[in-house]
Structures are given as C-alpha cells and as structure tokens.
Specification:
heterodimer, A: 19 helices, globular, B: alpha+beta, two-stranded antiparallel sheet
Amino acid sequence: MSHAPQADFSSKNTQLGPASFAARNAAVLGVIAILAGVYLGKSGAFNTDTRTFWKMYLVAFLFGLTICLGGLFFVIIQFLTRAGWSVAVRRPAEALASNLKWIWLLFMPILWMFFDGTAGMLFPWADLATMEANDPSMAHLVAKKAAYLNANFFIIRAVAYFAIWALLAWFFTSNSTKQDQDGAMHRTLSMQKWSGPAAILFALSISFAAVDWVMSLSPAWFSTMFGVYFFCGCVTGGYASLALITVRLKRHGLLQGIVSGEHLQDLGKLLFAFGMVFWAYIGFSQYMLIWYANLPEETGWFLTRQVGGWLPVTLILLFGHFVLPFVAMISRWPKRYGVSLAVGAAWMLCMHWIDVYWLVMPEIPNDIGTFATYDDLVATYGTQANGLDNPLNYILTVGVALLVFAGTAAYLRGRSLVPTRDPRLHESLSFENA
Amino acid sequence: MSTATHAHSQAASSAPRPVYGLIAEFENPGDLMHAAEKVRDAGFTWWDCCTPFPVHGLDKAMGVKRTILPVLVFFAGASGTAAAFALQTFTNSFSFSTWAVVKVTGYPYLISGKPMMSLPAFIPVMFELTILFSALSCVGLMFLFNGLPRLFHPLLQNNRFRRATNDRFFVVIEARDPKFLRGKTEAFLRTLGATAVEAVED
C-alpha cells in the first residue's frame, strides 16, 4: 500500500540557497588550476616531458567528460524505460549532463595540436614519419589504418561527438526545466519518444570517442571491447557522482521527504551493478580473450601494465574497483544510508580516475614483443615508473573537477532540485523497494 | 459419492474436528493493513495475511523480520566459486599417483601453451558455477522456508477464502498460536472491522 506522500515542494526544500564563497569561485579556481597546470607542464616542471603532459591533460579531461556522459546516460535510460522511481533524483543527473554543453572547450587545446602540427606528440598515428624512424614495423601496421586515423577525419568526428552530446544534453535538460513551468505532458512524451534514438547515438558516439581518444594512443593495438569498457567508466563516474550529489543535497537539509533511503538504495544498486560487477565482467572479458589468443600485437598492451610501476596500479584496480567495494556494497544497508553510500561513491570516483589514468598513461615499449620470457621483460622494464607521484596530474584533474562542479552547481541553482511537475513524480515519491 | 462423503462426515462429527484457525475478511488493502498492525501489536505469532496481489508495506505492518535467505545464497555462491576452482584444478593439473591405492590422474590437456594451472581460463567456469549455485540454492531454500511444495492446505476447504485470489483480503490466525482463544480471538478480529470472521477446520 503506497501512502500518498505529502512532500514539501517549497523553495526551502527544493531550492539551493545562495552560493558560498568557495562555490561561487569554483569555476575561477578551476580555470586557474588548469592554466597553472598547462604552464607548468609546458615548461617541463616536475620533469614532465611534453607527451606525458598532454596525456595527463587528456586524463583530466576524460575524467570530467566521463562523469558528465554518465549523467546523460542516466537521464536517457530513465526516459527509455519510462522509469517512475528515478524522477526524484533525476535533476542532479541532468545537472551533470548539462556540462556537456561547454565541456568541448576543454578539448580545444588537443584539437589545436592538429592545426599547429604537434598532434603526433599525443597521437602517434598523426606523425607517421617519426614513427617510421622509430619503429618501422609498427608504422607499417598503422599506415594501413590511415583511412580512419587521419587528422581531418579525426577532427570531423570530434566535432560530431561534441555536437551530439551537447544536443542531447540540451534537449533533455531544457525540456525537463520547461516542464517545471508549464507541466506539459507532451514534453515527457517527446523525451520518451526521442530517448531511443538518443540511446543509439550515445552508444555509437562514446564507442567511437573511446577508440579515437584512448585506443588510438597505442595505434597498433586494438580491442573490440574497448567502447564498452569506456562506457563502463562513464557509468561508474556518472553514477558515483550522482550518488554523491544526492547525499550532499540531503545532508544540506534539502529534498527532505522527497529523496528517501529507497532512492539511495537504487542509486547504490546501479553503482554496484555497473561500477563493480559490470566493470569486472567486461574488463575480464577483454583481458581473457587477449590472454588466450596470445597474439603479439594485442598482448603488449596488457603486458606493459603488468610490469614495473604499472603492476601495482593494475592490482589496485582489480581489488579497489571490484573485489573490495563488491564485498563492501553487496549488502542492503550500505546502499541505504547516506554516509556509507557517499563513502562508497567517493571511493569509486577515485577508482574511476585511476582507471582512466591506467588506460591513457602507460607507454607500450617498441620492443615489447621481442622478449623470450616475462622475466626478461621485467629485467628490462621492471623499473618503469607509473608517474602517479607527479603533482601535475592532480593540479589538472582538480582544475577539471572544479569546472564540472561549478557547472553542475550552477545548473542546480538555476531551477528546482526536483522536476516538480513531472507526471511520474508521485510514483517516485511513493516508491519502495519490494 | 455424495452419500459416502456424508457418511464420513457424520462419522467424524461424533468427535468434533479440531479448528485450524480463524479467518477474517476485509474489503480493501487499507483495512487489512490497519488490522495487520493491530494483530501484530496484540502479540500473535502464528498468523498470516492473504491477498490477491502483493501489498507494499504489508510486511512492515505485520512485523515480518527480514529473511536470512540472501546471506545463505551468498555462501552458496561462494561455494560454487570454490567448487569450480577445485574441479578445474583437479582435472587439469592434479594426480595422486604416489599415495593413492589406485592411481588417480586428472585430464591434463595442454591448450595454446598455457600452464596447466591457468586462473584466467578457470574464471568463466567459476563465474558460471557461482551463478548456478546461487540460483539453485535461492529457489531451493525459498521452497524449503515456505514449506513448499504443499498440495493441501486447510484454508482451501473454506468457500469464503476462495476470494483471496480475487477481491478480498484475509487475516488468518492459527489455533496453534499461544494467544489463540476461540471466542476471544474471534471477538478481537471483529473489532478490527472485518466484514466476516469464520472458523476453519483442520
């Protein structure tokens, strides 16, 4: 029996108050941090060479981007499945997605590299001549991919991804916001109608973006699972952030009687399912196929991540992204209470950053395929550092995170924290886990 | 046929059949919910609610404790993982030729040059057996805890109770409840707003 809830929808409960000093200046601080990071990186501070710097920048950018894409995915899926339970927690997800309207600005420095001819610094396929000199056999392989991996097509694709994401984010956020005013049913219907094509566009765009921006960093390597792996990262980051924001708003004394432990439990379930179980599932699927087939051009990618400083990072991911949180969050209660859910979500957010770092940073040595045994490889590359001690990583990541935070907070401040006139709001308020 | 039944019931009527319990009929889930809260607070233990569809929140109104089924399923799943690991390790790489009376060997089969003990290759089977053990134990223990399968139940003799699968909501208090007193419990159920209260024979 659902008790008809009499929730308080006054602005006291559903509206963020004026921003504190720190929140007001988060965007400014973020820009300062990024500019400082770029200046330090370009000038070679902390012994950072230019390629490493650009990869660090890419890690920071992808960390912010994946969180926002996760928010967009949440919104699309709720309309696709006509979900009732999630209406009360949909606004924070919209807020994350709304950042996709400006996040392309952060990609401009990387795109600019294609115009001033330094793109080969980050994407080896963009400078085949240098690759030819260093590693002719690899250059031979990569040259065959030139129909896809070339500067013009890369730029066109990047513009297309950002256009798709900005369009989708604009469509869902603006319709949802306008419904607060007019309560029009046709907005829900049209969001439901377009959520199907939106989901297809989303899946295709993030898969290709993963190939372009992450997989092509090691252009000779390929994995058909990679798009799914990247998607899993988006959902981990997005759902962890969504849970954190929701708990934070509740601790702030907002959304009382609107967002209940039932909603938190479901956010926790989603984070558990996608961030831990699904991640381990597809991560292992990708690993096992490559491990079993044992083809030299594929195994190098994993082998690099199993020696030297990268081995502990791989193990941290295995245990920190899957085993420990799996055991910690499998029960019902850690998902239902704000504190435990927030700790789990913050932990997963850190793991997601390490995951992105682990994807982007390692360099596959040219001679990786020439070692007779694993021990020979360890003897040569066992001292490779993982670079996690370079403060530049954190300066850049904090910069991007502050910008995403500022964008999210600005969206939430601009409207009610719940879609007050969504036709399914009542269903969401009386929702109980069976 | 009918005479035989009649004769049987007359023979039985000399010694009155024991009462299984009392059923109280309610017209809507709201009334049932309030009644359930009162029965719970009155301290009954052997009682239940029967409804045509799942009523959310009824378990709370009845004071039903959470089941330990998930915990048991977790350990069943973990034993599935362990069983799969043991099975594959044994078949792939173990042999008891020195100590065994009869020589026991697994089935060592070299696949693509991998070591006999290759954990990555074992994981899919470990995963599948975890799922299998969890699912089977979940369904099996659910049957066990609910006393299923059960082909007969005293309540099924009652004509009024048939509407529990259609449009009526019932509270059933069994006679074996320590607080059960035929007359007193019947009066109590009537105070809860039941539209009818009937005794059901065992």
